[in-house]
Amino acid sequence: MQDDVWSPPSVLLTVDLVILTLRGSRLHVLLVERGEDPFRGMPALPGGFLSHDGEEILDAAHRELSEETALAAGWVHLEQLAVYGDSGRDPRGRVVSVAHLAIAPGLPDPVAGTDATDAAWVPAEAVLSDEVELAFDHRRIAMDGIEHARTKLEFSALATAFCRENFTIAELQEVYEAVWGTELDTRNFYRKVQAAKGFIVPAGTDRRTTGGRPARLYRAGPKTVLFPPLIRPVPSAMEENTRGEEE
Fold it and tell me: Which end of the chain is more exposed for a tag (fewer CB within 10 A), N or C?
């Protein structure tokens, strides 16, 4: 008997973006309103299909960042997050998504483009608490992106990606508190940051006035891995109960 001729299954490839920034001392994620079916009118992560079979995945991520939000990608921290390929994740067929995490400081109000009718910054806790229903499996992707950022803040210099070129230690602490969702002791944080050699370095003699005495400015140092790491505090039982009541 002649064996059946095998043919590869039809699989489509997309890129999706978990874009994070701080706005008003709170962590926000960028969502767009879908302008096309499926899930027309629902919030979703920015993203889309490859434009052609020769487009590199990272190039597609940069393109979507620009097309869907009108945000410049050149100075945004962008890294691959994970691949999502469950067979039922997209009603249009077998669609595999290569998700990316993007982070930048002080990102402006977005402008929707291509197949999105609107774009807006949404507080991360609204996504984590399921207050906002997202299209496809985008809530899972967003949650994974936020947790990835939280973990990387412990062991890498990722926190500086949320800051402008020059920043104070108080502004760096604000990043950790916003991403981790917990308050930190100022003196203890200062001590731990200074102990992580090469994490941040003085940015010269310029100082920023914050209402009290001028604060010294710093910039990202040469080290990308923190040693010793800044371990995330374990929430107390009271904090966990309060968070559960809010959700």
Answer: N
Q: What region does 141 belong to: left with phi over 0, alpha with psi -120 to 50, or beta?
A: alpha
**E strands within the chain?**
12-23, 26-34, 43-44, 47-49, 77-84, 95-103, 116-123, 200-208, 215-220
Cα 201 from chain centroid? 25
- Taking alpha carbons only, the member of 112, 132, 22 closest to residue 65 is 112
Q: What pLDDT, on a 0 to 100 scale, did the predictor assign at position 238?
A: 43
Question: Can you spell out the DSSP letters for 57-95?
Answer: HHHHHHHHHHHHH----TTSEEEEEEEE--TTS-TTS-E
Side chain identity at 235, as an amino acid letter?
Answer: P
Q: Whole-angstrom Cα distance, residue 34 to residue 37? A: 8
Q: Would you say 96 and 12 are in contact if contact means Cβ atoms under 8 Å apart?
A: yes
Neighbours of 145 (CB within 10 A): 26
Q: Is 140 helix (H, G, I), strand (E, B) or coil?
A: helix
Residue with tokens 């926000």: 28
Give the span between the Cα atoms of 56 and 50, in whole angstroms. Answer: 8
169-219 pLDDT tens trace: 999 999 999 999 999 999 999 999 999 999 999 998 677 665 667 889 999
| Ramachandran assignment for 39, one of left (phi > 0), alpha (psi -120 to 50 degrees), beta (any other) | left
Cα(208)–Cα(195) distance, rounded to whole angstroms? Answer: 23
Taking a C-beta distance cutoff of 8 angstroms, is the pair 70, 152 a contact?
A: no
